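> tool_call: predict_assembly(chains=four)
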Amino acid sequence: MFKHIGLVGKHRVPEVLETLDKLITYLQAHRVSVTVDPDNAHLLSTADIKSADLPTMGRKCDLVIIVGGDGTFLRAASTLVEYEVRLLGIHMGRVGFLTDLTPPRMCVQLDQVLAGDFTQEERFLLHTTIMREGEALSEVDALNDIVAHNANIARLIEFETYINGQLVSCQRSDGLIVSTPTGSTAYALAGGGPILHPGLDAIVLVPICPNTLSSRPIVVDGDSEIEIVIGPRSPTRAQLASDGQITLNLEPGDRILIHKKRKHLHLIHPPGHDYFATLRQKLDWNREL
Amino acid sequence: MFKHIGLVGKHRVPEVLETLDKLITYLQAHRVSVTVDPDNAHLLSTADIKSADLPTMGRKCDLVIIVGGDGTFLRAASTLVEYEVRLLGIHMGRVGFLTDLTPPRMCVQLDQVLAGDFTQEERFLLHTTIMREGEALSEVDALNDIVAHNANIARLIEFETYINGQLVSCQRSDGLIVSTPTGSTAYALAGGGPILHPGLDAIVLVPICPNTLSSRPIVVDGDSEIEIVIGPRSPTRAQLASDGQITLNLEPGDRILIHKKRKHLHLIHPPGHDYFATLRQKLDWNREL
Amino acid sequence: MFKHIGLVGKHRVPEVLETLDKLITYLQAHRVSVTVDPDNAHLLSTADIKSADLPTMGRKCDLVIIVGGDGTFLRAASTLVEYEVRLLGIHMGRVGFLTDLTPPRMCVQLDQVLAGDFTQEERFLLHTTIMREGEALSEVDALNDIVAHNANIARLIEFETYINGQLVSCQRSDGLIVSTPTGSTAYALAGGGPILHPGLDAIVLVPICPNTLSSRPIVVDGDSEIEIVIGPRSPTRAQLASDGQITLNLEPGDRILIHKKRKHLHLIHPPGHDYFATLRQKLDWNREL
Amino acid sequence: MFKHIGLVGKHRVPEVLETLDKLITYLQAHRVSVTVDPDNAHLLSTADIKSADLPTMGRKCDLVIIVGGDGTFLRAASTLVEYEVRLLGIHMGRVGFLTDLTPPRMCVQLDQVLAGDFTQEERFLLHTTIMREGEALSEVDALNDIVAHNANIARLIEFETYINGQLVSCQRSDGLIVSTPTGSTAYALAGGGPILHPGLDAIVLVPICPNTLSSRPIVVDGDSEIEIVIGPRSPTRAQLASDGQITLNLEPGDRILIHKKRKHLHLIHPPGHDYFATLRQKLDWNREL
């Protein structure tokens, strides 16, 4: 099924290196060609392992296994998505939403995956363009969320939100979270948003501490064109974050254009993957009072 | 465009009768054949007007205009959906979510609609089957929502929820709201749910006063098969409501199967219809503190 | 310290009987006179044990130990509060908010309590009078909460709320929870209310599924006079529950007068009692995503 | 009743100057000695008006009238509280929570106040001391709230909260709002907190976007000693704001000690003041869906 597999690991974590060594031994025994990310390759016990950066890996491999947590997965995925390679995540601690294998069970589950016994799930990203004075200032992709936030905790930002050119609202708040279903269990959840099933083709807008009682998260179709316009009277110190990484400082009048990225992420799960079980396990979903 | 138009009005409301009379004069002047619902027909000032029940109207008309509020629209629509006839709503007070014409502007807007200048929107309904001991006990359609609720305010009901056969949660609460995007601005909103844009193909599940801190509304794909199983230890006095009408008493072990109805509602709007404007007007959406 | 101790147990639970037997042996060994509630007395292994109903127990004992869960405690406390006797709770499962001893540790903790090493906490109750056509129809005491709720899930009730004679709001909703700090971790929490520390002299009003976006729980001084007036247009089928027991059917125009009961509950804790620890343990308070 | 009245106005606002001029004419006609804040005094049309800074005004006047909005009131009050002088607020736009007179009605209402016909309300402030390595680094008073917040929107802060020395929770979030009843209708409300009646002797702790599903605002007695300890692993860029003004940058290990200030604010209202009416007017409290 898979002939060339890339391995990407969280940096400077002994348990990750150990897991990478085990994976190499396991995969080489299954006659799979293995490539490891440059930061980990030279730290491995295994000798003579090929190393490649993410773009090369994306082009050459038919599967990339990411070892770490959901954060490691997010960062690697934002590059690998360009190459449409399949991805599989191994979590070091408890199971993650994106990384649903764990070291104790990974060999049994990889036996299944290598035998072609797996499910594939498509996850979409948000492509964002920031426009300033008519020019595209910056572009960025996010698997979880795009957040416009005040940089000064004591000053609200003011912005208008449009869906497909229609005004949704003019709001003063600490900010706005625009989240994919993948991101709905991350920061959007902390902000009071609903959970969106990962198979849903939808985007949720969650206001952060809005200066109104009559606001609610709103869920729109995944094909919507979302535009956030920072108000002219808004304080200048607003910021944009993509998947939890600050991207740039926003200025009054900046327009943030968000739509679904054309290329999707191809996420692989071993058989028996159960999203709701992960939800119950990770979020203690519906634990009784 | 439309040759045969049916008129349905809220009963026993003088303003509705007055509006129906005006509509008949207007439509007859435009050489449209008009039929009125039996409850209102004999109360009109207009003489010799044809009357027909909803199923006949659904079969014979190419448009039905519903005069009243969202409640009147809901009740008429649940019958008319079977005939795939287009629907248009006129609201007596402020604009409604389903009834977006108002008497002062209706003639101008109907000029446009009769000239073919309108937008059409598809709204889906939820088809629900209640299974008891392996038999289908009852079936019902809802445009807004299906609600399973305790009948005794002092006793929680206990139920399991499944999506496409996968367990979502086992919950004790006052009940569960299963809502369409259309219903997301009705009872689901009062229960703390998000707003779903009416163009979204999704269903939201909103728990009512759940006996847990770790619960949230969850939004799933519109093609999901939803199953609620009333727990065997749950008090017997649970009830099912469809669009705010109590349908039947539930018993422990009852299974409530919910999926999207195959036939959709065809909702007509005059040009310039703006969902978010209605949202801001009706909900005072994002009014400043 | 305590010469006469009463024992009250949840009925028909083998583990409770077992715990009662152990308590009797323990207390008699400490030369304490023991009385048991009539429902459990004749089921005990211990011979010749005195039995008394709750009022008698309240008058004669200087401490009553309640064995069961928070529900058992609530029911016994509503009678015993009249006699100003001290109360101590033993929980059969995990620790409860009112019943913070558990059988494995109870003897060690009772050693401390009998030696006078304990803390005493005052908890207040809500006294409610229902007025109909100028007459007091019924009176009831609640340690947790008073709930006015629609009896028909498909019909909102309409009511006005007054604090010290000032109109707070006119609301249409499924109902209203008026809760003590003790009740703030019970139904009020499920309804979205804040947690009130048990030492706080305050009452919280939590609307249930209000038909508005602009509503919030409101916390008022414990000495407030609260009045709920069921609206004249409200459906007749509204109900009043006190501590989760339905008390009576409400009619349009009924006035529900609520204020703090003069007599308080005297709740005893062994040393080291930690409310926030109970909160974290029971509610999984602040468990990480 | 009042012989020496001070006037404080929002700066550089023509309507405020106009109102100050009217007040001076009105007060001098009532034989009251008037003092104006230095920033406005030299801009007035009235000649020969005495000017004094806030501390002097606090010492010499028996009433200070603040003209502007709630923000102007907050800033003046934080200085004037030290002198225990009575305060009255005039709002330029719609009524405010602290500034409940408006120019059109102010003369009628001042007639009443000068005749001794008013109510006086005590509002408490939070006194905060920031401790670093055992030393008091800074002290500040807040009438609304004290907020500890991450300075980097992409990094959660980690902190422990203690009430009277007992651990409440260890939390990772964007921050924590500690609010008085006065502040409960300001930022704490945007963060999802309950409304606390201004007469309530309580403090509410509202988490901002907590990284957990099982968190809620918690209301504690006004005499509680609150301590927030910034976690040693928390990012260094956390900030403290007092009444919406950033006060200082927090570092890991910093301890924030909060308790009620001994001196209270003495707020004057003309007769007929109705807190709940302001709530309904300002928040659109319980506006129907």
